[in-house]
Amino acid sequence: MKTFRISLIPCLLFCSVSILAQNNSAPKGKLFIIGGGDRPPALLKSLMKTAALDPKDYVVVLPMSSETPDTSYYYFKTDLETVCANPILNFNFTKEKVNYKNWLDSLEKARLIFITGGDQTRFMNIALNTPVQTAILKAYQNGATIAGTSAGAAVISKDMITGNELTDTIYRPTFRKIQHNNIEIKEGLGLLTSVVIDQHFVARSRYNRLLSAIARFPTYSCIGIDEATAIIVEGKKVTVSGESQVIVLRKPEGLKIAPTGQIKFKDIQFSIYTDTDVFTIDTP
Predict the structure, then answer these.
(1) pTM above the 0.85 mark?
(2) What CATH number has the domain spanning 29-280?
């Protein structure tokens, strides 16, 4: 019996990362990616409009990024209840609960899944290559809106910024240098490929961090979302919603690494968008 159970693991891991590619069909769902900070009523109304919940639908909150998951759930629920009459459920998965069938079945059938802020690595340490990740991917494939704020925004992409510098052991909210092999990237949920998401962007002046990301992934769209602001992703179409700005870096030209390890390039596509603006990205 033990041998049989172990043999299922490779299949589970494969399914977790390949759901979006099944039948060569694009996901039916949407993404609502918030840059962190306050969630003003207008932004929450935009989230509800995007999710388009029916009365029978429910919301699932995944608070595993937070050191205080019940508190994160409480504050998001309190905010959302001002614009949402649907049930709002709290599924605080742990490593011991990632196979909890009742929660997994409900997660897969949810029409709105919200990932709270905190530490994106903490979230992925629980969810990566587990039935939790598979259920999120299936929900998205089948038409759910997947939303997240701050750390919950970072986990959306396949290549995830952790916030750490590899050449400096002291964490700072913004990088002090633009250096080769300095930015730490780990695997995220994989709802977006060829995209890197950064958050609290303008408020915390994270330009050096995003420049480091575009140097690491020069063919990607590297997107910095400010606080109280979101991007709504529907296929290749991205719409900005909120009070502040979204910065997009693309196509660095003449990218080189100096002998000192410093990154340099001659030119780059640098765009700033505000509420209702639309741009496009590459998608799986």
Answers:
(1) yes
(2) 3.40.50.880
